[in-house]
Design goal:
Strand content: 35-45%
Number of helices: 6
Radius of gyration: 25 Å
Number of strands: 27
Structural class: alpha+beta
Strand order of the largest sheet: 14-11-12-13-26-25-24-18-22
Oligomer: single chain
Mean pLDDT: 94
Shape: elongated
Distance between the termini: 76 Å
Low-confidence stretches: none
Length: 367
């Protein structure tokens, strides 16, 4: 069995699938990359029983078959080949010989017989989304997914599609992020995808308005088809929070503010906040100004930001990191902040519409 291909294409393919390779597994084969050689094509697969990534490249091939290669050796030898074209030969003893003109490297592979098959998903249930839109939705909400494994369903993101509206939602108990896009899909979908899988999808998706991602799902698994890459993930089980009930129906104060000015202010506060020196941000809103105060054992920050304020004056406390991460994920030069009271959620929205909604729980301030 033998194939010859472009070094850069092989290296990129290895890099894509290696993100799903198990670091340590009771199935030794899952700690490597499965390579399948067929006529004119080489297919590579990484799988850790939760996420699988599969891709293929064109190649000049001789013979058919498959083997499992060490992810480290396969990646490093490919990357360090001396020419742009690389030839890979595998003999009956599973010795892999990689060559590129005068350069030759060998290592031992293992049999692919122990490598589990990736889950099958019925391709009849499908919807599509532009790759750049999907990437934006993931990147604008992923920060709010929980890292607490005690409630696994919240470590993923909800896909809620109904009546031509697609909401992607993440929540961790202290904050909530919603990203909305219109969709041509008229079917109803409601499932939760692990954040880890979505991060790999985001990394593979192109920032191109003409590129489409095809998504297939059943009750247990989901498949994302992105160009010549396929990402397969299990879905998370459990009841996701009824996020729509958390969105305020009214507000008492609205602030229009420069995202850059607000973020810069909170970044200055971050310099005096750490694990040993925690303190909420004190925010006083009124008379066209947002006053920000923070004091810890490290130091003190007093700041004021000009803003367009309507409604009641308000003093509220919040966690610096939670609001700052929401600001970094938000799009637009200016944002709307809405407040319903000192102990009600802070709402962060775009200037127009509700393409995203970020909610952050407040912190009670000491008098």
């Amino acid at each position: 069995m033998k194939f010859t291909c472009n070094k850069s294409e092989l290296s990129e393919a290895i890099g894509s699938v290696s993100k799903a390779v198990s670091i340590k597994s009771t199935i030794a084969a899952l700690e490597g990359i499965k390579v399948r050689v067929s006529e004119g094509e080489v297919e590579l697969t990484g799988y850790n029983l939760e996420i699988g990534i599969r891709t293929s490249i064109k190649a000049e091939t001789e013979g058919n078959g498959e083997f499992v290669a060490s992810v480290r050796l396969f990646s490093e030898f490919t990357r360090r080949m001396s020419e742009d074209e690389v030839t890979v030969e595998i003999d009956e003893n599973l010795t892999v010989r990689m060559s590129s003109r005068a350069t030759e490297c060998t290592f031992t592979a293992i049999s692919a017989q122990e490598y589990p098959e990736l889950p099958k998903v019925d391709t009849a249930r499908i919807f599509t989304v532009k790759q750049n839109v999907l990437r934006s939705m993931i990147n604008m909400t992923g920060y709010a997914a929980s890292t607490n494994e005690s409630k696994p369903v919240l470590t993923g993101e909800l896909f809620d599609i109904e009546n031509g509206s697609f909401n992607m939602v993440a929540i961790d108990g202290f904050r909530l992020a919603i990203r909305n896009e219109p969709t041509e899909c008229q079917d109803k979908y409601y499932f939760v995808v692990p954040k880890k899988a979505l991060m790999e999808v985001s990394a593979l998706a192109k920032d191109d308005n003409d590129k489409i991602c095809r998504i297939f799902t059943n009750n247990r698994h989901i498949i994302f088809e992105i160009d010549n890459c396929t990402v397969i993930s299990r879905l998370l089980e459990g009841a996701f929070h009824n996020y729509k009930l958390s969105i305020p129906s009214s507000h008492k104060t609205e602030v229009i503010i420069s995202k850059r000015d607000f973020a810069s202010c909170l970044e200055r506060c971050s310099l005096i906040i750490d694990e040993k020196n925690k303190c909420p941000i004190r925010c006083e809103i009124g008379n066209g100004v947002m006053k920000i105060n923070c004091k810890t054992g490290i130091g003190k920050v007093n700041d004021a930001i000009s803003a367009d304020i309507s409604g009641e004056a308000l003093t509220i406390g919040f966690n610096n990191k939670l609001v700052l991460e929401a600001l970094r994920a938000a799009e637009g030069d200016k944002l709307r902040l809405r407040f319903s009271g000192a102990m009600k959620v802070i709402e962060i929205l775009p200037m127009e519409g509700e393409s995203f909604i970020y909610l952050v729980m407040p912190i009670q301030l000491k008098n």
